[in-house]
Amino acid sequence: MLTLHRPGSGPWHRLPAGRKSVLLMMLVLGLCLLPTSRTSAAITAIVCAACFAVPGVGLRELLRQLCAARWILGVTAAGQLLFLGPEEALANTVRVAATVALCGLLALTTPVSTLLEALERALRPLALLRLDHRRAALVLTVALSTLPVLAGLARQVREAQRARGGGHSLRRFALPFLVLALKHADALGDALAARGVR
Membrane-spanning residues where (predicted)? Predict the structure, then answer.
């Protein structure tokens, strides 16, 4: 399975996966509960930047995460501007950006196997409801790692188009991106099947 983990020895890398997941989840929840205002947007941006501005990660990685999610952020901002005012659009777009970036931080600083083990432990009570907690943990882990992978594939397609002198045509972008995404899905399916997951 493709992993986005980058080995390191910083504070985020040393923090156990379960505690780190809970901490980031509570942080995202707290930021989303702030009132919708410019001040809240500024606080959210500062907190998100502070999370990345530690040894082993860095603000450059935050910019990379936001750049990879720029299409999502653009659509979010456009929809918010269309239906709400500029202040609400700014606050909500910054919230989405912080959520995406902090999820990326979790994936970058935690090996997939460690994250999977932590999720399995957290979801163990589902067994009381006769639900497979291991499968639920695997689905959540795959979902967490899929968005950055697709963003990376989109970047590859755009770079290849620029190298060939292609323009910014959505039609010319969509087909190669879809082919790469389906190849990734096939490879992921084969990897899961090889591990006995059906």
Answer: 63-84, 96-116, 136-154
Joined tokens for residue 168: 């910014």
Q: Which of 34, 178, 26, 37 lies closest to 106 in space, CA to CA?
A: 26
- Residues 135/197, Cβ–Cβ less than 8 Å: yes
49-64 pLDDT tens trace:
888 888 877 888 888 8
Distance CA 171, CA 169 (A): 5
DSSP SS3 for 152 = helix
DSSP 166: -
Take residue 74 and report the two structure tokens written for it: 């653009």
pLDDT of residue 3: 47
CB atoms within 10 A of CB 57: 20
Chain mean position to CA 48: 14
Q: How long is the chain?
A: 198
